[in-house]
């Protein structure tokens, strides 16, 4: 499950570390190249809810293998494509299977363990995504500089094929849900606590995506164009610490951890806005950013699963859609900011989005981001 998350998120975010190289090779601007991340997210937005509902009765391992195979196709086409339009189409295909996978992973992981281990199971399953951010994206950025960005997507295809063999050999199968047990989408959304979690997901990920997708253009005016991979590595390594903390404490301190995540990320964007000309503080901000973001997926997925109860699969699909709306919106809004203003505004726009995220967590104390121990209600 963790390796599947690794491949999913790395496929989604790799362009952030190689925008200059992709834009030159495909003959488009950096803001246009950034839409390769948006294209992935749009595919996930379009697919997560309808595909999850359509396949909710399928055997879980069959569905998992089908989605992973979709990544092999999408990454192969991206690696070989000479056309920006074809690249966007391949990225959209990756997003379609990625949206299905994100909705599938959390529920799959928790079915393997006892109820009191659900938070840790989600944390382990999501750890692969954070490894992708901490090691994968910086490595891909370095590979794009040393050789060519296409090799990174080719390597992803090889890893994906190996993962298919591993899943067949090691992952247990589970049946889908019986038709009569599925809750309608609108009823799931109205369950107390689900809507606040989705709102925080949207605003938090939107703020993250605005900065992460355009980190290279943000750092270039600061004289740090050659340090994109190092800044991303700083962010990613601290993210690993964050996901460990989230896995250890999520069941007792979900609300506190989410408040801290929003506050730390807001502090990061404030530092980047005021002290962006100081490289040391840029790295310190990247560390705060990683500490805030690393465990967020675990926190949000645990919160929506706890709130939704038996409607967990549909709620996870809603969460996946909100997450990818945030990523797509970050690519679009960040591109507009980059084209109409300048890169220094990216951190201020992100800060403006984190204010309602923090306010929502603070007010959703009874449902969504609860004070008590999860699973005790």
Can you describe what's shown?
The protein contains 16 helices and no strands. It is an all-alpha fold. Helix 10 packs antiparallel against helix 16 (346-363). The chain has helices at residues 2-13, 19-26, 30-33, 35-54, 60-80, 84-111, 118-146, 149-170, 185-190, 194-213, 215-219, 228-275, 279-293, 296-308, 312-340, 346-363. Residues 1-367 form the Major facilitator superfamily (MFS) profile domain. Keywords: Cell membrane, Membrane, Transmembrane, Transmembrane helix.
How are the elements arranged and paired?
Blueprint: H1 2-13, H2 19-26, H3 30-33, H4 35-54, H5 60-80, H6 84-111, H7 118-146, H8 149-170, H9 185-190, H10 194-213, H11 215-219, H12 228-275, H13 279-293, H14 296-308, H15 312-340, H16 346-363
Number of helical regions: 16
Largest sheet: none
Distance between the termini: 28 Å
Sequence of secondary-structure elements? HHHHHHHHHHHHHHHH
Shape: globular
**Spans with pLDDT under 50 lasting ≥5 residues?**
372-377
Rg, alpha carbons: 19 Å
- Overall average pLDDT: 85
User: Approximately what portion of the residues adopt beta-strand conformation?
Assistant: under 5%
Helix content: over 70%
Structural class: mainly alpha
What's the number of extended β-strand segments?
0
